[in-house]
């Protein structure tokens, strides 16, 4: 049985066309930069492109597709940002699985670039070329980026795919050696298709979540998971204006107790979208934006929410 590699990718027709034509015309570039917002299909497109490259432009067999998706093909190296902990490297998923708490975000390290160089020094096995995919390429420190630059100058029988949110987030000398493949935010219809295909159609009932996602299926799923992680009674209480000064203070105390800073920042986004749908009051949006700034400036969270909720209650009494 054969499968069309790009069949799962929705709403990125330009990227599909550029990559498909590169293989058909035997003009595959040594390096690509997949650039666009998170959650719109960049990583999926990279997987599909690898399948197309390894099938030599033909429809791919299910056996080869399964092998690639299991990550055990000798000609493919998939690189993700990592944390360093007790002499070992962990991806974000591995760190979460082990319960590791890290303050700094994961990065692509110099040691990982050296592993890429070593990988590419070997001839490809069971494929026409070696392929390296670097997710979140913007997390490379300058030393790592400069080391990768040397590899890009002489990649050998290989193709490298860098994935990043913007061109500006990657070292300009790296960008100049890559063919750019643009990815765009999904329209409403494409977003609905992706969410339905991935079993997340219930998100379509939450307009505030969809507004936060702004055309990113990945962001929509992450936002919905965040919504589910917040106590539902707290969410319902916050959808209404506080009933009294005491109610406002109790809500602020509960937010501070139950939610970490990241969840509180997400809650600000959610309330901005929900309140705008309900009230269309610019002043409430400005107050929420000010609350976000205070939270980012490490002002005591309980105080931030007390001020916000008390202000909303006071203004509600004027109408």
Automatic annotation (TrEMBL):
Keywords: Nucleotidyltransferase, Transferase. The keyword Nucleotidyltransferase applies. GO terms for biological process: DNA-templated DNA replication. InterPro entries: DNA_Rep/Repair_Clamp_Loader, P-loop_NTPase. GO terms for molecular function: DNA-directed DNA polymerase activity. It is an enzyme of class 2 (transferase). PANTHER family: DNA POLYMERASE III SUBUNIT DELTA, REPLICATION FACTOR C / DNA POLYMERASE III GAMMA-TAU SUBUNIT. This is DNA polymerase III subunit delta. It comes from Nostoc linckia z8.
